[in-house]
TrEMBL record:
UniProt xrefs under PROSITE patterns: PEPT_TRNA_HYDROL_1 (PS01195), PEPT_TRNA_HYDROL_2 (PS01196)
Gene3D superfamilies for this protein: Peptidyl-tRNA hydrolase
Residue numbers marked as site, Discriminates between blocked and unblocked aminoacyl-tRNA: 19
Protein name: Peptidyl-tRNA hydrolase
Organism of this sequence: Saccharomonospora piscinae
Record GO biological process: protein quality control for misfolded or incompletely synthesized proteins; rescue of stalled ribosome
Annotated site, Stabilizes the basic form of H active site to accept a proton, chain positions: 101
Subunit comment: Monomer.
PANTHER family: PEPTIDYL-TRNA HYDROLASE (PTHR17224:SF1)
Catalytic function, reaction form: an N-acyl-L-alpha-aminoacyl-tRNA + H2O = an N-acyl-L-amino acid + a tRNA + H(+)
Residues that coordinate or bind tRNA: 24, 74, 76, 122
E.C. code: 3.1.1.29
Active site: 29
Length: 197
């Protein structure tokens, strides 16, 4: 596959999507931030405010240099900070990996892909618009569909349920493992490993 390993250089940008501020910390929509916090710990770095408009952490994962970015803007405008970080660190779109919540996957499942549409996800729409392409990597964390008649927009801004929280740390670890596998071995190998779970 042409775009199997993120980036042509040694450096990769890992961007987690979420909303800034204490009110949103444990929301389903913020799973991208939660996974990046785990990756920052593994990379041995700390997030710091950056002029790109993101909180940025530099480190190494799977033998490669990585830049982790959590936009300080709200979800619908997160593309500006992702592009700002990519430009600052001279990383092309095919070296960008976006970690985000996915309504169309069962809770806790992890799927990886390259390219494709936004599927109604405003954060992805913003990233694609700012990058000028949909050709970047995505690591999708399943949050499941809202129960009953709850609107998806309300569901994603609610915290994980008590039942979900029991498995949350484990699922965050799994998603972080998938990101590391993508960075180390490429898309096909990571899909083969994580899509069977």
């Amino acid at each position: 596959m042409e775009h199997d390993l993120p980036g042509t250089g040694e450096q990769v940008l890992l961007a987690g999507l979420g909303n800034p501020g204490p009110r949103y910390v444990a929301n389903r929509h913020n799973i991208g931030f939660l996974v990046l916090d785990e990756l920052a710990e593994r990379a041995g770095g700390r997030f710091k405010a950056h002029r790109s408009g993101a909180e940025v952490c530099e480190g190494r994962l799977a033998g490669r240099r990585v830049v982790l970015a959590k936009p300080r803007s709200f979800m619908n405008l997160s593309g500006g900070a992702v592009v700002g970080a990519a430009r600052f660190y001279k990383i092309d779109p095919d070296g960008v990996v976006v970690v985000h919540d996915e309504l169309d996957l069962p809770y806790g499942s992890v799927r990886l892909k390259f390219g494709g549409g936004a599927g109604g996800h405003n954060g992805l729409r913003s990233v694609a618009k700012s990058l000028g392409t949909q050709d970047y990597y995505r690591v999708r964390f399943g949050i499941g569909r809202p129960p009953g008649r709850m609107a998806p927009a309300d569901y994603v801004l609610k915290d994980f349920s008590a039942t979900e929280r029991r498995e949350l740390a484990l699922n965050i670890d799994l998603c972080a493992d998938a990101v590391e596998a993508l960075v180390a071995k490429g898309l096909t190998a990571a899909q083969n490993e994580f899509h069977s779970r």
